[in-house]
Each structure stands twice: as C-alpha cells, then as structure tokens.
Amino acid sequence: MKIFLDTANMDEIKKANSIGVIDGVTTNPSLIAKEGGDFIQTFYDICELVNGPVSAETIAQDTQGMVREGELLSQIHEHIVIKLPLTTAGLAACKQLTDRGIKTNVTLCFQASQALLAAKAGATYISPFLGRLDDISHDGVGLIRDIAHIYDNYGMKTEILAASIRHPKHFVDVALAGADVATIPANVFWKLFNHPLTDSGNTRFLHDWSTVPNNNIEQQVQEWLKNRI
Ligand code: G3P
Fold first, then answer.
1. How many Å lie between the centroid of ligand 1 and the Cα of residue 164?
2. Residue with CA closest to ligand 1 atom 7
3. CB 167 less than 6 A from any atom of ligand 1
4. Which of 6, 56, 104, 123 has the fewest Cβ atoms within 10 angstroms?
5. Class of residue 59 by CB neighbours under 10 A (exposed 0-12, middle 13-18, buried 19+)
6. Domain that holds residue 214
7. Looking at ligand 1, which atom is closest to the CA of residue 164?
8. Atom of ligand 1 nearest to the CA of 55
9. Which numbered atom of ligand 1 lies nearest the CA of 135?
10. Are 135 and 174 in contact (CB under 8 A)?
11. What is the number of domains present in the chain?
C-alpha cells in the first residue's frame, strides 16, 4: 500500500518525507486555506519536494469550469493530479480530463455506487472518506472493502485512495481491506512508528550492551578490519 501525506504544510511534508516512505501528497481546499500564502507556489513546492503524485483540487462546480481549472493546474508540475468532487459534473470532468491524459482523483466518495461510476469515468484514484462515515456511525472500512471487491470483480484499474484517516487502526484496517493508497495527516503518520514494547525492548538492549567490554562498534570494526589486512 502506498502512503500519501494529507497536508499542505511544507514543514510537515519535509519532515515526513525525510524518512523515505512517503509516495505522494493530497491536499484539499480546507488544507490549502489553513496554510495561507500563494497556493500555486505551494502546489509547485510540494511537487518539487515529493517524488510522486500531488493532488490539487478544482473549485468550479460545472464540468467546463472543472476541465479548464484541471488543465491549468496540471501545467504547474508533472506530479499534479486533478482532484474533482464526486458530483455528476465532477464525473463528466473526470472523463474529459482522463481522455486528455490528465490524472484525476475523485474525492468525497461515501458509497460504493459512486466509486463504481468514478472508475467508469476513468478516475486514476477514488477517495472514500472513511473517518467522516465513522463520524456518523457508518462503516468507513466496510466501504473500502466493498469498493475493493467491486473493482476486483470487474478488473477496474482505478486505485482506492483511503482518505479521512484518523488513527493508526484506520491505517491498518484499510491495508487489510485492500486500499491501494492511504492518505494520512502528519500526526497519524508519526503514530504509525510507535509501540511501547519497541521502546522498552530497545532500552533493555542498550542496558545489556553497556555491560560488554570495548563496546564501541565503530572503533572495534575499524580495528578488526585493519588487523585483517
Ligand atoms: O483528503 C481528505 C481528507 O483530508 C478529509 O479528512 O479529517 O477532514 O475528514 P477529514
């Protein structure tokens, strides 16, 4: 499963990207608004930083306007993927942009029928929002599972990009459910690394190692290599 970061904050992206496991970035109008500044420059800077797809969302609500905005946004950088809302106008725009070779991410998906239609419109990615479904007592992970099943039934190529992920369990659950990508906020990304048994195990190893005589690995290996020659 690929990991995208769901943020427009350059510091968060830089820090997470330095680990080497980030495959792309998703943004939305709320995330861009939160950061302020020049949004075009923000898209460009993210694209230059991350070696993978970067979603930039259209604002127009009619098909023609979305296609126009999509064509323009896609010229910012080759990494740009055009994010479109899952409306009838959005799906029509998805079809037209796909036909022109522009990659798309159809967002705000809350039921499997919408995901099937997005795949038929040629979407590169479909973004089901599982956290927002869980918020209203629906089964967000179940939706990912259903979409994976339907796409498998028909060999549909659209990638399932699980969005609105709120905690590490969501991340694992969507991996089990067959998501191709999980897009996660930075705070969830850092939580994925942690386990108290990892920390206590590491502390014990360090303590036991401190009882080994001449325990400087670098020094000892260098010396051993020198004596070997
Ligand atoms: O990419 C979509 C995602 O950002 C929505 O997350 O937490 O606003 O439901 P959330």
1. 4
2. 164
3. no
4. 6
5. exposed
6. 196-228
7. 6
8. 1
9. 9
10. no
11. 2
What is the CA(63)–ligand 1 centre distance, in A?
A: 23
Q: Which helix (H) or strand (E) holds 43?
A: helix 39-49
Q: 99-124: per-residue pLDDT in tens?
A: 999 999 999 999 999 999 999 999 99
CATH number of 56's domain:
3.20.20.70
CA triple 117-70-62, angle to 5 deg: 65
Assess whether the C-beta atom of 131 lies below 6 angstroms from ligand 1. Answer: yes
Q: Is 67 in the same domain as 143?
A: yes
Instruction: Tell me how many degrees the CA angle 89-94-95 measures, rounded to the nearest 5.
Output: 100
- DSSP labels for 78-133? TTEEEEEESSHHHHHHHHHHHHTT--EEEEEE-SHHHHHHHHHTT-SEEEEBHHHH
Task: Report the mean per-residue pLDDT for the chain.
Answer: 97
130 near 144, Cβ under 8 Å?
yes
Say yes or no: 78 and 175 in one domain.
Answer: yes
pTM: 0.95
- Judge if the beta carbon of residue 132 lies within 6 A of ligand 1: yes
Q: Looking at the structure, do residues 100 and 159 belong to the same domain, yes or no?
A: yes
CB 131 within 8 A of CB 165: yes
pLDDT above 90: percentage of residues in the chain:
100
**Pocket mutation for ligand 1, best pick of 30, 35, 132 (most atoms within 8 Å of C-beta):** 132
83 in catalytic set: yes
